[in-house]
Amino acid sequence: MEILFAVLIAALTAAGIYLCCLRQVFPVVLGLSLLSYATNLFLFVAGRLTVGAPPVWAEGVTRFADPLPQALVLTAIVIAFGMTALLVVLAIRARFESGVERSDVPAVTDRVEVER
Amino acid sequence: MNAHLPILPVLIPVLSAAVMVALSRQDLVLARVLSFIAAAAQLVVALLLFAATGEGEILVYRLGDWPAPYGIALVADRLSAAMVLLTAILGAVLLLHAVCAWDRRGRHFHPLFQFQLMGIYGAFLTGDFFNLFVFFEVMLIASYGLMVHGGGAARLTNALQYMVVNLIASSLFLFAVALIYNAAGTLNFADLAQRVPTIPSSDRGILMAGGTLLCVVFLLKAAVVPLQFWLPGAYGHAPGVAAALFALLSKVGAYALLRFALVGLGWSSLAALEPLAWLTLLAGALGVLAAPSLGVLAGFASISSIGVLFVGLAGADAARLGAGLYYLVHSTLAGAALFVLADLVRSVRREEGDALVGGREFSGRALLGGLFFLVAIVTVGLPPLSGFVGKLAVLRNIPVTVIEGAASWVFVLMASFLLLLGLSRAGSRVFWKTQKDGGQASHGPAAGGVAALALLLAGTLVWALVAGPALAYFTQAAQALLEPGAYVQAVMGAGVYR
């Protein structure tokens, strides 16, 4: 179980980081989504992996799953979802206003853009 | 009244933003009135909070009255109350500039502005680091909205990069939260402070990995070298009023770092960051020399002032840390003033904008030139304004007899000299190299922007005049960070700890 989770999180993180390094916007969006899946899984196991245990403490129960990371994951999922939607909208607007789909920008010292 | 005081700075902006979205979607005048009412209410609450914590009291607000490690707690002590007051003042002053120049150029400016303030207040007041994450995200979502306000290709592509960088940082934040929770079993700063000494050595590695990762995230928000690359492009192209408010965002990173590392992890100091502070100083100052426009120059100048800030914060004694915190307030006011000034220049020079090139005569040149002179004095840190007092206070507490101390002196003074060169060059190009014939047909700078700039400059003057009491106040606040016993006691309460 631990090995499975570790491999899964590692694979998602590696793919996410690779995609974030690309110069087009769409792969970066995908990469950030994969990274957020990896963080969600990682948060999920932060309370240690337990299988078949009740989620809260009750009389006579000695082995239970930590409910707090599950609450954290819910919050993190909502935030990542909202952020991804916003990022896609921003990427589309940037694509149409600048005419190119790139995630990198020219160096600030290169040229002057008059922005009002 | 006092019992509910710590939640009000978060509640007022979120409620007023909701009312604005519901009532004033089309009605800009109503939105402005509501915005000013909200700003006034925040000022009053911030002053009350400041007064209530002035003697070193620590107000703890338990949401739903759940005891501390289980429930969510907001904590107001001297330092967070002072930061809240700074935010309220800056927000109110910048509104003057916003209503004259910015809120017409896109929709929902005022609700976004209030959400931005809410995120900043929340980050200053929260007592646990998962809510710190949530308030950071609120702050960032609002900042993305404000950053693209008005549109434009360069602004959008820079905002996109800013957003990607911050989303990666948010992922790191969550990884760090998971690691720390795994090792310590708590998310509360005070609870963490109690548990760190009892964590078994087998889990210490996980705690250190999580703690270091979280520090990296805060250093990125604070724009410390080598994580400063995103700032000049993003802030330099953002709407002036947003960039001026963002001068505070990097300070939120520095504040969170202090709170987390000194109180939560119980580190004795941030001395390891001193070399990074030197490099930050140098990178900012060299950037000022190379900047092609006033907006980008303001971005590099704020990086340089982050360097001075961290030279102060790297101290292990309360006096040096307190001087760093005094400089933090100055640096926020000065950074905001420079961004507002760049925005005003952009608005009156129709062709060249804020580019550092000579051009045709423009109206309001003498006024803006005079204001630029004062802003430059504040930014470089020449007497008599607060930049000089802040740098002097930081340097006075650094011993020149040890090698690190001497290096700090050299870097601070060298960076100040480079800033002086860069700002002189910028000022003479923009305000002196004008052709006399054929002035640009433009109106002068907007009254609200000039008023906001004058208020910010007056703020730095006042800040220099009250330097004695202010330094004493922040030295006490720093003492509370270095010896967090009272903080832990107040949050955890007697006998609550398992």
List the helices and strands and how they pair.
The complex is a heterodimer of chains A (116) and B (498).
Chain A: H1 2-20, H2 25-44, H3 68-98
Chain B: H1 8-23, H2 28-53, E1 59-62, E2 73-76, H3 78-101, H4 109-125, H5 129-147, H6 153-184, H7 189-195, H8 201-222, H9 231-237, H10 240-246, H11 249-264, H12 274-290, H13 294-313, H14 318-348, E3 359-360, H15 365-380, H16 386-396, H17 403-432, E4 434-435, H18 447-465, H19 467-482, H20 485-492
Parallel strand pairs in B: 3-4
Antiparallel strand pairs in B: 1-2
Helix pairs in contact in B: 1-2, 1-4, 2-3, 3-4, 3-14, 3-18, 4-5, 5-6, 6-8, 6-9, 7-11, 7-20, 8-11, 9-13, 10-14, 12-13, 12-17, 13-14, 13-17, 14-15, 14-16, 14-18, 14-19, 15-17, 15-18, 16-18
Fraction of residues of chain A in helices?
55-70%
Give, in spatial order, the strands making up the sheet with the most strands of chain B. Answer: 1-2
By DSSP (H or I, 4+ residues per run), the number of helices of chain B equals: 20
Structural class of chain B: mainly alpha
- What is the CA–CA distance across the termini of chain B? 31 Å
User: Would you report the number of β strands of chain B?
Assistant: 4
Rg over CA atoms of chain A = 20 Å
User: How confident is the prediction overall: mean pLDDT of chain B?
Assistant: 90
